[in-house]
Write a structure and sequence with these properties.
- GO terms for molecular function: L-methionine-(R)-S-oxide reductase activity.
- It comes from Idiomarina xiamenensis 10-D-4.
- InterPro entries: FRMsr_CS, GAF, GAF-like_dom_sf, Phosphatase_reg/MetRdx.
- Belongs to the free Met sulfoxide reductase family.
- This protein is α+β, with helices and mostly antiparallel strands.
- It has one domain: Beta-Lactamase (2-Layer Sandwich).
- Helices cover 35% and strands 28% of the residues.
- The chain has 4 helices and 6 strands; from the N terminus they run H-H-E-E-E-H-E-E-E-H.
- A 6-stranded antiparallel sheet has the order 3-2-1-6-5-4, sandwiched between helices.
- Helix 1 runs antiparallel to helix 2 and helix 1 packs parallel to helix 4.
- The longest helix has 16 residues.
């Protein structure tokens, strides 16, 4: 299966999961489980939610225990939240200010979810392999992030 097909199918499944469910946390929990199940060679998939000014707080996820709070000023997730731009990091150990929540993680892609100009969350995917993610992964996950903007974040 091509990467484009994989992400298109995942997005369709996410839309179906969320269609009749208004609860944000329930939806994010199912989405993180779906991503964790569908993507090969990952060790963490989930969300950090903006719950305080310039601060991300752990949300629904799949994987090992994670950092609970990440300031917008730190790490790959913080960079995505702060710049409102996706972060594609081939080797997290080369990323200045990387936060090692799981020492087994070696590459990462983070998609900011922006609603009305504000970062409301980030979608964070980690892999134990260096250079696991490419532009096609980023684009597929960005399409999922774009859809997530339509959920009720209030």
């Amino acid at each position: 299966m091509s990467t484009d097909t994989l992400y298109r199918d995942m997005l369709n499944q996410i839309k179906a999961l969320c269609a009749d469910e208004p609860d944000l946390i329930a939806n994010l929990a199912n989405i993180s489980a779906l991503i964790y199940d569908q993507l090969d060679d990952i060790n963490w998939a989930g969300f950090y939610l903006t719950r305080a000014p310039q601060m991300l707080v752990l949300g629904p996820f799949q994987g090992k225990v994670a950092c609970v709070r990440i300031p917008f000023s730190q790490g790959v997730c913080g960079a995505a939240a702060r710049t409102q731009e996706a972060q594609l990091v081939a080797d997290v150990h080369q990323f200045s200010g990387h936060i090692a929540c799981d020492s087994a993680s070696n590459s990462e892609v983070v998609i900011p979810i922006v609603v009305d100009g504000n970062t409301v969350a980030v979608l964070d995917i980690d892999s134990p392999s260096v250079n696991r993610f490419d532009k096609a992964d980023q684009q597929g996950l960005q399409a999922i992030g774009d859809y997530l903007q339509s959920l009720d974040w209030s």
